Amino acid sequence: MTEPGIAPLLKKKELLTKVYEMTKAVKFTGGEDDADAYTNLMERRELLFNEIKILDDEISGIDQSTDAYGIMDDIKKTAEGIVALDRENEAAASKIIDGLKKSLKGINEGKHASIKYTDFIPTSDGMYFDQKN
Prior knowledge:
With 133 residues, the chain is mostly helical. The protein is 73% helix and 3% strand.
């Protein structure tokens, strides 16, 4: 039987495990769905972290027993796992962003080159004005 004050710790451990599993499930592949998946993950994580914050207020008054220390150690390990996964995801996301920047740079360079090689044709409100040279 667990001590009555340990219930918030167990709930926090459960919520952090959910965050860990959600974070682990999201992999950046460079596809079009990456941004949506990341946004969805962040929204769901925020809800869980709000619940955890409420639990932290309850946990602050718990006496530290042997059971509590074991659960807190599990919580710490899970939190460290979440941080490690976040770092991996950040590195993958940075690679994707760098690729997008290079792609946009190429598009912009092509746009500037196109403008240089086309003549400017004067128009006003959709009407073309011919000019004599």
